[in-house]
Amino acid sequence: MKHEMKKFGDIDLSRKILQAVTEMGFEEPSPIQAQTIPLALEGHDVIGQAQTGTGKTAAFGIPTVEKTAEKSRHIQALVLTPTRELAIQTAEELNKIGKFKRVRTLPVYGGQSIERQIKALNRGVQIIVGTPGRLLDHLHRGTIKLEHVQTLVLDEADEMLDMGFIDDIENILEMIPAERQTLLFSATMPAPIEKLSLRYMNHPQRVTITRENLTVPLIDQVYYETRQKFEGLCRVLDVEETGKLIIFCRTKRAVDDLSASLDARGYSAGGLHGDLSQIQRDRVMKKFREGRIDVLIATDVAARGIDIDDITHVINYDIPQDHESYVHRIGRTGRAGRTGVAMTFIEPKEYRQLRLIMKLAHTKIQRRELPTASDILERQKELVQERLVKTLQQNRYDDYHTIISDVAAEGFDLVDIAAAALKLSLEGFQEDAKSDGDSFGDTGGAPGMVRLFLNIGRNQKIRPSDIVRAIASEADIPGDTIGVINIYDRFTFVEVPEDVAERVMNIMHRNTVKGYKVNVEPARKR
Ligand code: ADP
Ligand code: MG
Prior knowledge:
Blueprint: H1 15-23, H2 31-41, E1 46-49, H3 56-67, E2 77-80, H4 84-97, E3 105-108, H5 114-122, E4 127-130, H6 132-141, E5 151-154, H7 157-162, H8 166-174, E6 181-186, H9 191-200, E7 205-208, E8 220-225, H10 229-239, E9 244-248, H11 252-264, E10 269-272, H12 278-289, E11 295-298, H13 300-303, E12 311-316, H14 323-330, E13 341-346, H15 351-361, E14 366-367, H16 373-394, H17 398-409, H18 414-436, E15 449-454, H19 464-474, E16 485-487, E17 492-497, H20 498-508, E18 512-513, E19 516-517, E20 520-522
Parallel strand pairs: 1-6, 1-7, 2-4, 2-5, 3-4, 5-6, 8-13, 8-14, 9-11, 9-12, 10-11, 12-13
Antiparallel strand pairs: 15-17, 15-20, 16-17, 18-19
Helix pairs in contact: 2-3, 3-4, 6-8, 14-15
Bound molecules: adenosine-5'-diphosphate (ADP) and magnesium ion (MG).
């Protein structure tokens, strides 16, 4: 797909509209938008043809709202749409576009009480989005008047034809002032629509966005259907063995939200979108390349320049706009003969769009069920085992040998000790300490004192004064309240008053002393 690097700011739009578009999270106009908005603003009649999901609503919505006079309370634009659902969605989008301009759009469709619609109409609206049947009803009752309409939009024209609305549409067209602009948007252009356009449009400018032939890489493609995408995503991340991973979102705001949510859940994620400075982007990309963040979250636009070979997973957290975008996104994995996985999250209502993507991209996306809680547990066990084996292989845990041999000397079974150590390392000291009602247990310190274990010692040239200084200054307690200090080759025991022990632990743990990173733990009774 040839992407125009055009920005909304390059189009002659008022500040209020640009502000609204930014707030909607649109980074740049889609191709149909880039080409039709300027024509419509110039006053031409326009026929826009592009497939579903390419942003046709904003393509007519932006110029239509732009041209609407804020002050006038007359209906200035009419959008005809085939279904109630589309009427509601389209009106919502127009209201977003008109947010700062205070242009009000009302959807009018069958199935809703007509009295309620009349009340809403009486409050004054400038744009109506309506289904043909209900609109005719209002026109016959005189509750909607079209004499001030300057812009008429026929949206999803091919679907309106399919649903048998063509006569209704002609009836409506006859009631609108001939001196008007007509915009027609459709995914396809069947003959009756062509004919309609010839009869009712004035020298229309045509914009057709054609699709390019794209090949889908040979990778695993699955989709998950859920109403709770975030929960679903976390589950998948927990069980799936992933390397470098890209998650696609549709808007900048979605990127920010998702990276904050993932961070809060303990995944290390970095977001990439058009609002970041080049320096910020480079920083995120560097971290991602070096594996310092696991997950890159990006908009389509921001991801465009990315060239990384070893991406194992592409996740479509928001369904791609169209099949081209789908193919572009998933093409980031499975490069150079590597294996890759593409996962797409959809909400139930998006199934139709997914099917369309499959059809147009000539590909099959398999349904997969989300991992269950027991899948996750199983995976966690595997991970712990893997890490344990790795730690054993690295063979750098001498510091802890004496602890284990001391405990073993007390008569505990080695397997039990290992299991307890694992529990301790996974669940931490805090929990058990709490359930004991005694925060540190017996650490072997003098009465009123807690004995702490630090994993640095003589080998690191640590002297008592270093320990006193570090604890006193970092934890802000008087040096003379610190008790006995015993320094060994690889570790040190130090006693601190019970009431400040917690604070000393929190501050000193993972802090550095003489440039050495320290682990601090309560000592075990001798
Ligand atoms: P169509 O009418 O062509 O099927 P829509 O107008 O319904 O497509 O747009 C599909 C989706 O794309 C909507 O969720 C819309 O908000 C979003 N969208 C439209 N334009 C843009 C854009 N420029 N950038 C990002 N998302 C967009
Ligand atoms: Mg549409």
